[in-house]
Design goal:
- The chain has 20 helices and four strands.
- With 539 residues, it is mainly α.
- It folds into two domains: 1-274, no CATH class; 286-532, no CATH class.
- Helix 11 packs parallel to helix 16 (391-423) and helix 13 (330-340) packs across helix 18 (463-484).
- It is globular and about 65 Å long.
């Protein structure tokens, strides 16, 4: 076998489980989306009403796609396509960084570079590996749409558009890996680039030009600055335009070529963005392992906290808008009731946004536990544990900081919700719903935290894959379960879907005590088991 084939095969063997989760999960989301849309918006009148309401209140388009008509397929793409593309983008950036900057950090790249493969062949193998992964994702998404009887060309365009976004961000990940000194820094740059371009596309759609019948939106120039916007302008099941996909693929290939040039122009292990030099002496604030965990994770916590602030702001700012939409379209009210309970529409909107907040808080916690696994795998945990620091104290530091991150994300959302009410001179009675929903999501996110910690203790090499998979599964069941028409018992398997809410003036605690009990038991079990576990270095 050729050197290139050997490297490519190694990447496939190393990643096949993770890629299976990403690609099949994305295709399953596409399939269930159509099933849910067909059930909840089965008539053209329902779809027309929702599109008109969305175009009349463009802020809703920040989190949806580009309206292209009332056809069932086009309407489904409007509702779900940005999320399919987002999953493809995240899959691609993580893949690119893992096999480039991640391998340099672990020392694997140095060993490969000492062989005839050299410096550039591994990067080329990673690029081809990413292209194959996105081709598989595109094929599965297209197959999901075809399986429900949608048109062939529209299905192919929608699948190819999701894969093309992945290719664009594969290039972003490869480029970020050349710029930053650590895989953590490269992943941060790539993820922020992903979220920023996602938001740019949403804003560009929101300030576009609606059609006279309020069923179609023409993008503004801003949308064309984002690869998400390029893919949305294929307008699957409406125009079926293929040419915007060339922009996505072209961007990915250009960035890959630039990355090949950059990797040849720098020393192994170095980067083009220099790390900030540290102090010669640590401050007193770093006198404990918990303080060290806070120091290395505070940047990520700040990022998730900003997301919490924006979510809280939107929850109360949009409450009155959604109330107006629901009055015109009973299907919207039904979905909100399924997600949040039987309260009024404004209460339901707050609870729905805070369900999204629970996902953000869970992401913050899981990322911090995954950092514990990375420190263990890279050997940076050993010097800490060589000091008089017990394993339980070391893991306890990560759990404590992760819980603090959850609290900060939720507190920022509560502050944002208060700001949204003040900015619109709204109903301050909603703050009671905000506080109840926020407290409930702290408990829900804590369950994700302790389950990931248990995986870290029992099967450390599965920590990252299982931790993030659980968050995606919880998000799918909790946020999209009602849209997909899933049974209530299945939706309620997600911790974020069984948190307390206000039903009028009455508090319904739902599964709060089970969440608290599960979180407490998980903390106790993970710390007890950690006492007996040896370090597990390596991937």
């Amino acid at each position: 076998m050729s050197r290139f084939g050997t490297l490519l095969g190694q990447r496939v063997r190393r990643d096949w489980r993770q890629l299976l989760l990403w690609t099949v999960g994305t295709a399953l989301l596409a399939y269930l989306s159509y099933v849910g849309v067909a059930e909840s918006y089965g008539t053209e009148q329902d779809r027309t009403s929702l599109l008109a309401a969305a175009l009349a209140n463009p802020v809703i388009l920040l989190f949806r796609g580009l309206p292209s008509g009332t056809d069932a397929g086009a309407f489904m793409v409007f509702l779900i396509f940005p999320w399919l593309a987002l999953l493809a983008a995240l899959m691609s950036t993580f893949l690119a960084v893992r096999h480039t900057r991640g391998d340099e950090e672990s020392g694997r790249a140095e060993l490969v570079a000492a062989t005839p493969a050299g410096r550039t062949l591994p990067l080329l193998a990673t690029a081809v590996h990413g292209l194959l992964a996105n081709a598989l994702l595109a094929a599965l998404v297209a197959a999901a749409f075809l399986s429900v009887g949608l048109e062939v060309e529209g299905s192919l365009v929608a699948g190819a558009a999701a894969g093309a976004v992945g290719v664009a961000f594969l290039g972003v990940g490869l480029f970020a890996a050349q710029l930053m000194r650590t895989s953590r820094g490269a992943n941060s740059v790539a993820v922020w680039a992903t979220l920023l371009t996602f938001l740019i596309a949403g804003i560009g759609n929101a300030i576009g030009t609606p059609s006279d019948d309020l069923t179609r939106m023409e993008s503004s120039w801003l949308t064309w600055l984002s690869s998400f916007g390029w893919a949305e302008n294929t307008r699957a099941f409406a125009d079926d335009a293929w040419w915007p996909l060339a922009l996505c693929v072209g961007l990915g290939l250009v960035l890959a070529v630039v990355s090949v040039a950059l990797v040849s122009a720098r020393d192994l292990g170095e980067s083009f963005v220099a790390e900030r030099p540290g102090r010669a002496w640590a401050s007193a604030a770093l006198s404990s392992p918990t303080a060290l965990v806070w120091r290395v994770t505070r940047g990520a916590i700040v990022g998730w906290t900003v997301g919490g602030l924006l979510t809280g702001l939107l929850s109360t700012s949009l409450a009155s808008i959604v109330s107006e939409i629901s009055a015109e379209n009973p299907s919207v009210a039904q979905i909100l009731e399924q997600i949040s309970g039987e309260g009024d529409i404004e209460q339901g909107t707050v609870t729905t946004f805070f369900t999204m907040l629970g996902v953000l808080a869970a992401c913050c916690a899981v990322q911090i536990v995954c950092r514990a696994r990375q420190d263990e795998a890279h050997g940076t945990a050993e010097p800490v544990l060589a000091a008089p620091v017990a394993r339980t104290r070391w893991l306890g530091g990560y759990l404590l900081v992760a819980f603090a991150g959850i609290v900060l994300v939720v507190a920022a959302a509560i502050a944002g919700a208060a700001g949204g009410i003040a900015g619109q001179d709204g109903d301050w009675d909603l703050m009671g719903d905000v506080l109840v929903a926020g407290a409930g999501q702290v408990a829900a996110a804590s369950v994700f935290l302790v389950v990931t910690a248990l995986v870290f203790v029992l099967a450390p090499r599965l920590t990252i894959a299982v931790g993030w998979s659980l968050v995606v599964l919880g998000m799918t069941l909790g946020l999209f379960g009602p849209l997909f028409g899933l049974p209530e018992w299945l939706t309620h398997l997600s911790p974020i879907a069984v948190t307390p809410f206000m039903d009028g003036d009455q508090l319904d605690v739902r599964g709060l005590w089970w969440l608290v009990l599960a979180a407490a038991a998980g903390v106790a079990a993970s710390l007890a088991l950690m006492r007996r576990r040896e370090l597990a270095t390596g991937d």
